[in-house]
Amino acid sequence: MSAQVVWLSTNRLHLHHGPIDCIVEAHGATTDVCSALNAAAERFPTLLPELVAELVTLRRPLTDSRPILNGITARLMHEACWPHRTVFITPMAAVAGAVADTLLHAMLACAPALSKAFVNNGGDIAFHLNPNERFRLAIADNPGQQAVRSFIEIGSDWHVRGAATSGWRGRSQSLGIADAVTSLAANAARADAAATLIANAVNVDHPSIQRLPACEVKDDSDLGEQLVTVCVPRLPPEYVATALANGERVARVMVEAGTLFCAVLQCQGVTKIVPPLQRAVHHFPPFALLAA
What we know:
Layout: E1 4-9, E2 12-17, E3 20-27, H1 30-53, H2 55-58, H3 72-81, H4 95-110, E4 116-121, E5 124-129, E6 134-139, E7 150-155, E8 162-166, E9 180-185, H5 188-201, E10 210-213, H6 214-217, E11 227-231, H7 237-257, E12 262-267, E13 270-274, E14 290-291
Antiparallel strand pairs: 1-2, 2-3, 3-4, 4-5, 5-8, 6-7, 7-14, 8-9, 9-12, 10-11, 12-13
C-alpha cells in the first residue's frame, strides 16, 4: 500500500501508510500553516521505507553496545530507549512516538513561527507550543476506546513536548495489566518508551490472567517468546493495588532520572498519578487531572 495523504481542512491532515496512522494539525499564519502541512505531506512517504530498511536492528534488544543506525527516526527511537537498556527493551518501544517527532520536526523546519502544532500517531503525540499557548491532552482509561474521563492542560513553559499511552488493551503488546499508562516527556519518542515500560511494570501474578508468547499473538513481534497479556478478568482490589504500586515505582525512578516528566497509571478503575519533580514545576499549581 502506498502512503496516503488526505487534507481534512486547511490546517489538518490525515496521513496513513501501513501501520502508521497520523492526524496532523497546525495553527498560525496561513502561509506558515500551509508550509508546515506540505512539509509533513512530503516527508511522510519516506518514513516507513526508512524504518523497514533498519527493521532487523530496531527489533533487537538493546545492550551496552550501541547499534549503527542511519535514519533520523531510527536514531530517535534508539535515543529514547537507551537509558532503559538495563531491562528488556528494543527501539521499537518508541517507534510511534519517534514517527510523530520526525513529522513535527519537518513541519517546524519549514515554519518555525507556528503558534501551535501537533502530530498524533495513534495516540502517541508530538506537539509544539509557542509562549503562552496550551495543549489539552485527553486521558483515556482504555487505549482501544474513545471514551475520555479527564484531561491535562499542558503549558508552553512545561518541559514537555510529547505524550504517549500504552496498556494491554491497546494496539501494542504489553507484559503488564495496565488498562492505560499515559506519560509526558521531552518528546514523543521518550514518552512512548516510558509508557511502554511503565505499563509492563503495572503487573501482578494471578491465576486468571491469561498470557501467551508474544510471537504466537503476533508473528512479527519484537518481544519474541516473552509472555504478553491477552486477557485480564476483574481482580481483587489488593491485586490491582499491588500492580499499580509496581508501576508507580518504575515511573518514579524515571522522573527522578529526568527521562519522564509525569505519568498517569490506570488499572480497573483505579488511577495513580506520578507527579513531576517539584523543583521542575514550582511555579505551577498542584498537578492534577481535570474533569472532561
